[in-house]
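In practice, a research group might receive sequence data for several interacting partners and want a quick structural hypothesis before committing to experiments. The following worked case mirrors that situation: the sequences arrive first, and a predicted assembly follows.
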Amino acid sequence: MPCISTLEIRPCRENIHTMSHKPAIKTTGLSKTFKKGKHEVHAVRDLNLEIKRGVVFGFLGPNGAGKTTTIRLLIDLIHPTQGSAEIFGEAVQGNPRSLNRVGSLVEDATFYNYMSGRSNLDILARTSNKFIPHRIDELLEKVHLEEDRDRQVGDYSTGMKQRLGLAAALLTDPDLLILDEPTNGLDPGGILEMRSFIRDLVDDHEKTVFLSSHLLNEVEQVCDRVAIINEGVMIREGVVKELLSEGTALLEIEVAPVKHAIEALKPRWSSILEIKRRDGPSRAWITLDVPEEETPEVIYRLIENQIRVYQVINRKPSLEEYFLNVTAEMDHHGKKESSA
Amino acid sequence: MNLFLAEWMKVNRNYKVVAFLVWIFPIGLTALYLTLIGMALIDERASGGLDGVASGKWIQDAVNIWNMVIFFPGNTVGRMLPLAFMAVVFSGEYEWRTWKNTVPRTNRYRLILVKLSVIVLVVVIGFSLAFLISGVANLFGRHITDVPYSPVFNPASFGEFILAFAKATALGLLSITYLGTLAALAAILTRSILGALLVSYGLSLVDALSLGILALIKQLFNLPTDILNLYQLTPSYHIENLWSWMFFDQAATTLTGNLAVFTSSPSMTLSALIYGFWITGLIAAAIFLFQRQDLTS
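A structural hypothesis for the assembly, expressed as tokens:
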């Protein structure tokens, strides 16, 4: 589109900019309700996401949170009850063209078990109308299935199927990869390899990866941004590091006797999160949710009460702890609302 | 073309399914004829075996291969294997949870249409091979074992055989397409292989037995005979009428044993239109349902 200025007619840089920077994924009020008999299950509720290109975006939530339903909505396997989804600026629903630049691996990888891994990829490439034989061999090599490519998929292990699933997702050299629990069934070596592979896709090949997982350390290690979903509702979204620096730090202290330590700290710091006993009943680790600057005060209080302090560790909460706190908060609010 | 090849590979690499449900017709027939001919060559007294399986009118015997899917009562049983094959192909995608791999890659309606084309083609090839094997083996076997047959093989009878093959294949194609739409619809509704087989077979049985059902209703409710004319709305009647026009150059107005005499004599064009309407309607219904369906597994 030309931009008309007073001096000249020139290509509109804004338009070009906007076109090439449309978010990889955008959802607006995306909702999905399943009817099961007389009951309605709200699998996804009013989901608003905007995922920029060139990032690994983690979609985190416990089992049954709505992650897979969201992914199925994003690749038009199911239809939203309300709202819409866009991929690179194109509406997804009823528009398969919008998925031309998308590769996906939904839940566990399933194939035609009676055919070889290679034939399965052959079929999928042809279905996409992008059949390039050497690409299939390259991908099989990349996911370390080159020696098993002619074996029936029915004889593959879960991990092998998962790797074949990744190859299938990459068949069309997509700009956006949607991966649902991609490390399911992989051995520890395979998990590490998958993580570094995902990072490479983004860092070296400028792809965008939308990764759903219930494994918090996976998201923490691989993702740039994360959204947390629980019971179909997105409860937080942001940069992983920023989310982790939100709120207070955790203070872990090894003390004895633990009973007296708790009595000494409780009046001032009621937020004792965890007590891990060790070496008998009196010595234990106490975890407190307190701001970092209050650490000296905590130690002073313990010593003042003649409590032995063995070790002190001040650390940021892991994403796992963050997630548990956030979902616990949500449950708490939910209960409050329902009792009101 | 790529999508067609993909479906073709998918269907034909499922060796067990395609062998037991489709290739069993030409392979079984070949084995049968080879056995009978072999026995007749070894012992002259066994040559009667050939008469046991076919009348000796080798062109008519070959044409009769299609009876098992088109005409009552053969179609009540003969449709089972083709329907089972088509049900497996369609509903296998649900049971094997493979729609999630293919649906994001292309239009849903294309997947249904291409799958339907491939399965129809495979079944028609299977039956056409059975037709050719029946004709050739019957003729050849009787000739070398001196068992009587007719007509005598000459250019005219060969031409007649080829013409009969073309007509029967064209009608078989229509009939199998109709069965394919039933299988597609049943698979989409039930999402299971067994469910698709039972529902599609049930629907085809209702169609095949529709005249009997109408006769029963007439008897039960003491209705006028005209009610039997409703049979002329069913796909069963119209494929039968097309067959009648193609092979006997007249409309099908009576049924075996004068069970019913119909008051109208639809032309070949009208029957082709009505049969086409049935097929198109069923395909449209299948596509409509599949387009709206949530693929949750």
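Before designing any experiment, note the following. Chain B is about 75% helix and 0% strand. The interface with chain A takes residues 2-3, 5-6, 9-10, 13-16, 96-108, 291-292, 294-296 of chain B (CB under 8 Å).
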